[in-house]
Design a protein that fits this description.
Number of domains: 3
Radius of gyration: 29 Å
Order of helices and strands: HEEEEEEEEHHEEEEEEEEEEEEEEEE
Number of strands: 24
CATH topology of the largest domain: Immunoglobulin-like
Strand order of the largest sheet: 2-8-7-4-5
CATH architecture of the largest domain: Sandwich
């Protein structure tokens, strides 16, 4: 009898052991990424044109990554403009790169992104070529009126200086280049210095607009639509479509991830022939939704549940942004240093900072740049931007700094990420 009980006990022990082994968790297997990583540069686009000292926003995605990515290196030509060590510590299969370059060299520039593994054997390289134009490129006069779009003021000046009694025709006025027009600049955006009106460029295959003063870019062709960005005087962009009456143009807003928007005809100069541009019908004008009146209800009986604390990122500007030189000097770039702190409970990534010149309650010159990498709760990130104010010297200006200007990041508080400087007088400088 004892022998039979011993055999039954042994059988039960063996069965339980087998069950434990069968239910044991499988050993985790680390993901291995073979071969070189791949790089896709989303911004800037190949062939993009930038003004000198205008930030070039860089956005790229690295795939087939893994945790053994040792280094990311950004170059313009032979110059290293940024390095990120161990950029993918979490070992994700893909990650993004954001940076900015202030366009300090004129001419064709090649941006290169190099991604290396720890072994050094697998390295990826991706390049894109852009053009940087010098500040000597002709721009409209300071604070032009709507009438200045149709006539070039330098023509009249040249007539008065030469003393010629005969007034030129309207066609000659439209074709007259400014004194700063380069002798030869063979790009599709140039208005040729010949008897061709600005709206019928002989060299441009894609019509473009040039901003004659600080302009808002909207979601639709009306001031009733939301503003999605701003463009400074002298900025240019391709025309993608237009209204039938030529009162609004649809353009590519390249500094906001290649999005498109609409700009009014009265604030732009047209470069090229718009007769072949597609005509789009105006979308329905947005109608504000009025809140529905809700009758008051009786308070519920008994105690209410305590409010739940909001969780998420919350970005604020830490301290006072630094500006050098300050006050701003007309037609001279100042460096603006901004430190952003995340006082929320979650990490924030893809953070952009915008700096705007405010004159007469309107946005004029403006620029934006990303903070490389994200910001953890309680952490900070710093970015340098370059802003040139070129109008209304010896008059009152203010500087506005905005974190996440397009509200791309969901925050627990969307009202605490703007800084407005005290009023200052813009020095004359080179204006």
């Amino acid at each position: 009898m004892l022998r039979q009980l011993w055999l039954v006990s042994l059988l039960l022990i063996s069965t339980l052991s087998a069950c434990r082994l069968a239910n044991a968790p499988a050993e985790e297997v680390a993901l291995v990424f073979e071969g070189a990583p791949t790089i896709n540069i989303a911004s800037p686009l190949a062939g993009s044109v930038y003004r000198e000292n205008t930030p070039v926003n860089i956005l790229a995605r690295v795939e087939n990554a893994g945790g053994d990515i040792a280094n990311v290196e950004l170059r313009v030509g032979d110059e290293i403009i940024g390095q990120i060590a161990n950029p993918n510590a979490a070992g994700a299969s893909a990650f993004t790169i954001t940076s900015s370059w202030p366009a300090v060299r004129v001419g064709q520039q090649t941006l290169s992104i190099i991604v290396s593994r720890t072994s050094g054997a697998q390295t990826a390289l991706e390049t894109v070529t852009i053009e940087v134009r010098g500040m000597a490129t002709p721009t409209p006069t300071i604070s032009p009126t709507t009438d200045s779009v149709a006539a070039t003021p330098t023509t009249a000046d040249a007539q008065s200086n030469s003393g010629q009694p005969a007034a030129p025709t309207a066609e000659q006025q439209a074709a007259q280049p400014t004194s700063e027009q380069p002798a030869a600049q063979p790009t599709v955006e140039q208005v040729a210095p010949s008897a061709v009106p600005p709206t019928a460029s002989a060299t441009s295959s894609v019509p473009r607009i040039r901003i004659v003063q600080g302009a808002n870019v909207r979601q639709g062709p009306s001031t009733s639509f939301q503003v999605i960005g701003t463009l400074a005087a002298g900025a240019e962009s391709d025309i993608l479509a237009k209204l039938a009456d030529d009162s609004w143009y649809k353009i590519r807003l390249s500094n906001v991830y290649n999005t498109t928007g609409w700009v009014a005809r009265v604030v732009v100069e047209v470069l090229g022939d718009t007769s072949t541009i597609p005509i789009e019908a105006a979308p329905p004008t947005p109608v504000p939704v009025l809140p529905t009146a809700v009758p008051p209800t009786a308070a519920p009986a008994g105690p209410t549940a305590p409010p739940v604390a909001a969780t998420g990122a919350d970005l604020v500007i830490e301290g006072v942004p630094g500006v050098n030189p300050h006050p701003f000097v007309c037609a001279q770039a100042s460096t603006v240093t901004v430190t952003v702190k995340n006082i929320g409970t979650r990490r924030a990534e893809g953070i952009f900072v915008a700096v705007q010149d405010i004159y007469n309650n309107a946005v004029g010159a403006n620029t934006s740049a990303p903070i490389v990498g994200g910001i953890d709760p309680g952490g900070t990130g710093t970015v340098e931007l370059y802003l040139t104010v070129s109008n209304n010297f010896r008059e009152a200006h203010t500087t506005r700094v905005v974190v996440d200007p397009n509200n791309a990041i969901t925050e627990t508080n969307e009202t605490n990420n703007v800084y407005n400087s005290p009023v200052y007088s813009l020095e004359q400088g080179g204006c």
